[in-house]
Design brief:
By secondary structure, the chain is an alpha/beta fold. It folds into two domains: 4-129 and 157-209 and 302-336, Spore Coat Polysaccharide Biosynthesis Protein SpsA, Chain A; 228-297. The protein is built from ten helices and eight strands. It has helices spanning 19-33, 51-61, 76-86, 106-115, 132-149, 165-172, 181-188, 211-223, 228-256, 265-297; strands at 4-12, 37-44, 65-70, 91-94, 121-125, 161-164, 192-196, 305-308.
Length: 345
């Protein structure tokens, strides 16, 4: 056993300004957790700003803070899975880097697991009020999750969660290159529940979320974790075939009875366009599944790590970072960077 009671995993992208405040607030919250050893794993997901240098300086200031620098931007789900794979705690928490998941709410999640030992994980939830498009996207994402993965109605996924060690190990063992973390959690265990927490407005930096990200999340939830779209398209094809047979029987009967059946170019045109479009859509859908299959079977690394802050640190003579501030790395710091490493999972 590692002796670590809680690991906190935070994937970060362009988080240089927010990370000092996040670490400061987590440091203050540690005293209220009632736990022993705690570690913080900050996973830099290929940020183009000074996040890597900030991670080095935070790790130098706090022996419980560790940084992982990925070679490129893999996306939040992969960065989260990388952090889970490196976490050593008996409990593992995940949260965002922008302080919208308040560190002082983390004890609520930990206490709920203590109070209910039958649970394997708890997920923070709150009343969504993030604007029309974000709220609509969350609603559609929830419907997709229930349809594709059988998530219980009323349960809300979020990135603010605490998970027991056996579940973390089972999630990491999936070895997928295209993870969807929330549904993966509910696939591993059904002993999971929501806990009401506070959700703060973002005060540092700007959100990296775009409408396209929300649409992509809904599509990913369907395609990468379920065969539901294929089953729907199969049912659609069967239904249209049945309609065609029924129409054939009707028109054959009309002809036998001598009923006049005038030709109609418009109905023929619309039927051709509709079913032609449906066929193209189904081909594209199958192509998406083939793309996911190729990514999974070609054996590429799940993530690629440039270095960690436990490697020899970057040379620096700058003073410690104050919460809410970030400064560029010192000249020549990049020259001291160790060789790249990778995790093939």
């Amino acid at each position: 056993m590692s002796g670590i009671d809680l690991s906190v995993v935070v994937p970060t992208y362009r988080g240089a300004d927010a990370l000092p405040s996040l670490v400061a607030e987590l440091d203050a919250a540690r005293a209220t957790l009632g736990l022993g050893a705690i570690e913080l794993l900050l996973v830099n997901d290929g940020s183009p700003d000074d996040t890597e240098a900030v991670l080095d300086r935070l790790a130098e200031q706090h022996d419980w803070v560790h940084g992982i620098d990925l070679l490129r931007n893999h996306g939040q789900p992969v960065a989260t899975m990388c952090g889970l794979a490196h976490a050593r705690g008996a409990l593992v928490a995940t949260m965002d880097d922008d302080l919208q998941h308040p560190p002082d709410q983390l004890p609520l999640l930990v206490d709920e697991l203590r109070r209910r030992p039958e649970l394997d994980a708890v997920v923070g939830s709150w009343t969504r009020d993030e604007g029309l498009f974000r709220d609509a996207g969350s609603w559609l994402h929830g419907i997709a999750d229930r349809l594709a993965h059988g998530t219980p109605k009323g349960f809300r996924h979020s990135a603010f969660r605490v998970i027991r060690r056996p579940v973390v190990e089972a999630m990491v063992a999936h070895q997928t290159r295209t993870p969807v973390v929330g549904p993966l959690l509910t696939q591993v265990t059904t002993r999971i529940d929501n806990v009401d927490v506070r959700h703060d407005d973002r005060t540092i930096g700007t959100s990296n979320f775009r409408t396209a990200h929300g649409v992509r999340a809904v599509v990913t939830n369907f395609i990468q974790g379920s065969t539901l779209p294929l089953r729907v398209m199969s049912g659609f094809g069967l239904a249209t075939a049945a309609v065609a047979v029924l129409a054939g029987v009707v028109f054959a009967a009309r002809a036998l009875w001598g009923a006049d059946t005038p030709p109609g170019w418009l109905s023929t045109f619309l039927a051709t366009v509709f079913f032609g479009g449906a066929i193209l859509f189904q081909i594209g859908l199958v192509g998406q599944y083939i793309h996911v299959i190729v990514r999974e079977v070609r054996g590429a690394p799940r993530w690629t790590i440039r270095r960690t802050t436990d490697d020899p640190p970057l040379a620096t003579d700058q003073p410690p970072l104050a919460p809410g501030s970030s400064e560029p790395p010192p000249p020549g710091a990049a020259e001291a960077r160790p060789a790249a490493t990778s995790d093939r999972g």
